Amino acid sequence: MQHNPPAAPAVRETLKRLLVSETFSRSERARDLLQYLVERDLAGEADRLKGFSIAVDVFGKDADFDPSTDAVVRVQAGRLRDLLQQYFATEGASEPLRIAIPRGSYVPTYKILAAEMQPEQQQVEAKPATVATGALPLPSLGRQLAFMWLAIGVVVVVLSFMLLRQSNILSATAEATTTAPEAPATTSSIDLTQPDTLPTIYLSAKDETPEIAAVAATLRRGLSGFDTVDFIGRDIEGDPNPQFKALNFIFKLIPGSTAGSVTIELQNLGSGRVLLSRTLSRSETEPQEIEDQIAGLLTTTTTASGTIYAYIEQEGTQVGLTRCLLLNDDYYQDPNAQAHENAYRCFEQLLALNAKSALIYSELSALHLEAVTDRYAYPLEASRDKAMAMAHKAVQMAATSPYAHRAYGYMNSRLGNSEESIRWTRKAYELNTYDLTMAAAYGYGLIFAGHYEEGTPIMARAVDSTSAHPPWWDFGLFLGEFMLGDIKEAARATAALNPTAKKSHYLAARLIAADQTGDLRAKKERLNELLTDFPKFAADPRKTFEQRKYPADLTDRLVEALRAAGLGNST
């Protein structure tokens, strides 16, 4: 990439195609931000591209804007980077000029592929739909910057596909609600003969270098612990079952472009499309580095929030358990009554079709408890005892399932059995240390048991390693940082909470952060939201925290902070 822009007409032509592309069609903020950054840069005003000026010029913030407490520019810039990566990996793969927004800067950089690439690099870049993080020439800022850029590749594709997936699922849900609001999920997307269907993962490592062998061994260990995929552990032999070809994927390991490096490609066997290409440097394949590298990669590709599931939904090939896990993830990304009912009914239907996966019971148990605590209308007569019974059945069915152990730990956490919660979530984490969702659950359990110093770093590792995660991760991190007295980090955690996730405790966290960072406008807005939408909570927040079995010291600190912010003065 180069900072000095190529000829302005060429840049503007590329920009024009970007702005009208399918990739950017659902994100007006990303379009506005991209156009502003490029036009200012072409006008010779790159020095103006700072967080404050962008907040004022693009997002309408006033002179009181504080970039240290309001993350709108950082968040939107991160989403823009992801969309740019997706565009040039898919519909813009043939673009001769590429635009990027480097991490740590808002000044666009440009690359003319034909003029700057060596023949062997052109062969790599010519592959369609490949996000080749390690194939681009790295800026000469040393190993630390190289590590940073390579780490970005782990989460690049996830949010990109999530934007498409969120739109698709919301549209489908809205249509279903309009036509038959009381009807359960139909069987059209459930395979009647194989309701337990999950994506199948193969592994191909034909070159026998020590580095490839190390990566292959680590991938095998990691993939074998994920309940959300069926891992075969070898290269595919022959043609996969045509009926489920779109659900078959393969991790291919090939030598990287530099000595000792390894490129990992994730490919769909049905279409041949490469969904992700990530190059690990020689140092990243060393024993002290490889575990974390593979953990981040697998969490953002093989979970229900990851690349594989996002691709399946985008292609409309979700069936059986795969479909229900997507609906379940949609609920946790944006908790609401309709999304909850869609997921719950889907799992119920699988049980009616004699599905045998323990995943069904583990996820139903959590959804059932959500119905109790958030007072959802469905299912009827929800109770904590029923939720616990489902979690217990999941553990009985699959004694080595991290998801089952996590569910049982979650039940105990919400019931106030803190030591049991820690025991079960620790076991879930030990069963699959490569799944950062298990790390998040363990960290969350520690925080809700009052072990803030131990749980907060684990929670932070999970949050920092993957952008596509449910809001309860950010809420858990807020609680930990809040109790450790780091209000700046606590406020940053609340900035990532989905504003459409209307839950009283999320709004309470955002109110506390706004009050303690001096954001008077945000404080007023959050206070009004709580008073209007959650009057019972606003009148007595302590009651809610005690019902949800928060630790006594955490409850006291939260109530005190809310009172200082103007809420619950009668408590």
Strand content: 5-15%
Query: Stretches where pLDDT falls below 50 for ≥5 residues?
Result: 115-188
Q: Strand arrangement, largest sheet? A: 4-3-5-6-7
Shape: globular
Describe this structure as you would to a colleague.
- Among the domains are: 8-116; 121-163 and 194-320, no CATH class; 502-571, no CATH class.
- It is 57% helix and 7% strand.
- The chain is built from 25 helices and seven strands.
- The strands form two sheets. Strands 4-3-5-6-7 form a five-stranded mixed β-sheet. The protein has a two-stranded antiparallel ribbon with strand order 1-2.
- Helix 12 runs antiparallel to helix 13 (358-373), helix 14 (384-397) runs antiparallel to helix 15 (402-414) and helix 16 (418-431) runs antiparallel to helix 17 (436-448).
- The longest helix is centred in the first third of the chain and has 37 residues, at 143-179.
- It is globular and about 60 Å long.
- The termini are far apart.
- Residues 115-188 have low confidence and may be disordered.
